User: Which sequence fits this backbone?
């Protein structure tokens, strides 16, 4: 069943680039990135060599969660431009051989979407059942603390239910109160979503990145009831068991496939965002015979440094855990299905600051991390600025933050009095989503070439040295390293399709694996350390191996069955196993 050179889909050799429009490039001087701005930078993407661009939401939105709260799925928010601007951007990307994937946010809408406005207007409105409306808990009065229909906490702190005074009922919002959850049990909802998706495909886009798609099916009792979740810490319960990977999820995805993608599947890219999914779930989502998705985003590797108090209570990373997780996903999807590969996106801190060294060894660690990731089997995703080695924001005061998740978290943590102000700030500085949302650093000028106005969020002061112009001028830069990695995936079939075998699983500082396709074998080594590390190499690898890629001018030499790697060194070698 595993893909072969003959039948492998196009996206097995593709690299995807994520644009978070509000921080990419401002074209009109209002301090917010937009589509005219993207047009100024399409050649950067072409030079990098990416095959696909995924746009975080551009749709009309009150911007409560930076566009993940959509009030019109079939229009562009004026902040970003117009539908005609988008057509122009799509045409400019297509002209450079780059496909375009839209974010699809259909677990929830904005509370300002006309569907929700109607739904909330009365209990007998025809769209009432398009969302999750429930009366207060039995025996309790609406508005009383604890009267919410279930004890579920939202992803953004506080209860996942909001009381609507007009009808005295609560609606479910797994994210902010301005992001009510759609009721996928209702076939009219599903048909409305499918029609909207067909409209976008007919307009010329090439696929979808499906936001929290594994939350669309909720666990509903025969009587329509939803159940409390286990209470782990605090007073609220975990919504996961009642909302994550629900009983009808695969049915809905297959139905979507038939209603929207049938007959045009081959040219599209369908990737699901699936927090909490296991590798067994991923096999089901991505087995081509099941006709659901092409690949999903795992969250396991980006949860390994979360501490007992959650993501804002981080713990030091143990590299062995990363290797164990990645090896499990590689093995689980070796014969059936496919992996997505990512370190960064708009929800995660910058990888060079998180797993690397964003000081002395910024270039070395950023290029090493990229090498290790891109040489896995799967489709790599590059988040804007990652190819420049951009770092965390290193904000030091609360007024620098913009993200609703961070701001709500601080509000709730203060109310509970669990953490000191210093602890709160340290948590945000390490893990806050704004780390990845500062403007892309194009040059050394005052606003990094991002805007002529006042940027909506602070530009990282290190743009004076870390920027695209400087990166482009330096052949050893992070940018040129990403360019070479992308080219390698396009030209060396073993990168896309080779079998994966993890080496050195117990080594605390060195990541190593081989990729094998027919008689070609690649050896990939990456040091997660600022000290020299000497490790054994497998039989058959010696100084005759061809050096494919590295991040030092002269690569570490193999000899006597071992190799000594310098700080954050990365190495890719190739040999023939026969003849
Ligand atoms: O993210 C869903 C998700 O599970 C997260 O990673 C979440 O944003 C948060 O970081 C949990 O701590 C998606 C989008 O990528 C995110 O930007 C949106 O805020 C969210 O869905 C709601 O649409």
Assistant:
């Amino acid at each position: 069943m595993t893909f072969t050179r003959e039948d492998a889909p196009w996206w097995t050799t593709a690299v995807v680039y994520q644009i978070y429009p509000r921080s990419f490039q401002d074209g009109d001087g209002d301090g917010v990135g937009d589509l005219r701005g993207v047009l100024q930078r399409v050649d950067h993407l072409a030079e990098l060599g990416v095959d696909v661009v995924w746009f975080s939401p551009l749709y009309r939105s009150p911007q409560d969660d930076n566009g993940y709260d959509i009030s019109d799925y079939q229009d562009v928010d004026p902040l970003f431009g117009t539908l005609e601007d988008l057509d122009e951007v799509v045409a400019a990307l297509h002209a450079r051989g780059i496909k375009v994937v839209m974010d699809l946010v259909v677990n929830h809408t904005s509370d300002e979407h006309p569907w929700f406005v109607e739904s909330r207007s009365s209990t007998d409105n025809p769209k009432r059942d398009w969302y999750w409306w429930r009366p207060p808990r039995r025996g309790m009065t609406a508005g009383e603390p604890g009267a919410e229909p279930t004890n579920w906490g939202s992803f953004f702190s506080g209860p996942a239910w909001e009381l609507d005074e007009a009808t005295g009922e609560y609606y479910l919002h797994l994210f902010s109160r301005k992001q009510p959850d759609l009721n996928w049990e209702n076939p009219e909802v599903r048909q409305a979503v499918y029609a909207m998706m067909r409209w976008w495909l007919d307009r010329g886009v090439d696929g979808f990145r499906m936001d929290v798609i594994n939350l669309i099916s909720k666990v509903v009792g025969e009587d329509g009831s939803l159940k409390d979740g286990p209470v782990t810490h605090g007073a609220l319960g975990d919504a996961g068991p009642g909302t994550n990977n629900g009983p009808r999820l695969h049915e809905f995805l297959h139905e979507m496939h038939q209603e929207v993608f049938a007959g045009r599947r081959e040219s599209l890219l369908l990737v699901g965002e699936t927090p909490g999914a296991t590798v067994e779930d991923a096999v089901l989502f991505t087995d081509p015979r099941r006709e659901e998705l092409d690949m999903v985003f795992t969250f396991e590797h980006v949860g390994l440094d979360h501490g007992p108090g959650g993501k804002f209570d981080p713990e030091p990373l143990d590299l062995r855990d990363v290797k164990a997780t990645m090896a499990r996903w590689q093995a689980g999807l070796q014969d059936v299905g496919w992996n997505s590969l990512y370190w960064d996106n708009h929800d995660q801190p910058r990888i060079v600051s998180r797993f690397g060294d964003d000081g002395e060894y910024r270039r070395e660690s950023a290029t090493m991390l990229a090498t290790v990731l891109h040489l896995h089997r799967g489709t790599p995703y590059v988040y804007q600025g990652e190819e420049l080695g951009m770092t965390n924001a290193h904000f030091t005061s609360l007024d620098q933050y913009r993200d609703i998740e961070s701001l709500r978290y601080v509000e709730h943590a203060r109310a509970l009095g669990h953490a000191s102000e210093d602890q709160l700030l340290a948590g945000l500085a390490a893990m806050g989503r704004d780390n990845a949302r500062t403007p892309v650093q194009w040059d050394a000028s005052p606003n990094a070439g991002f805007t002529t106005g006042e940027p909506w969020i602070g530009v990282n002061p290190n743009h004076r040295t870390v920027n695209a112009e400087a990166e482009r001028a330096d052949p050893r830069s992070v940018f040129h390293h990403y360019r070479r990695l992308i080219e390698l995936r396009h030209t060396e079939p073993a990168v896309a399709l080779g079998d994966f075998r993890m080496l050195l699983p117990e080594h605390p500082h060195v990541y190593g694996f081989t990729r094998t396709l027919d008689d070609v074998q690649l050896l990939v080594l990456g040091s997660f350390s600022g000290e020299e590390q000497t490790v054994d190499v497998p039989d058959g690898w010696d100084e005759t191996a061809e050096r494919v890629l590295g991040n030092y001018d002269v690569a570490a030499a193999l000899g006597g069955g071992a190799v000594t790697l310098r700080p954050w060194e990365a190495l890719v070698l190739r040999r023939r196993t026969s003849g």
Remarks:
- The CA atoms of residues 56 and 207 lie 13 Å apart.
- The mean pLDDT is 97.
- Residues 498-576 form a domain with the Immunoglobulin-like fold (CATH 2.60.40.1180).
- The first strand starts at residue 16 and ends at 19.
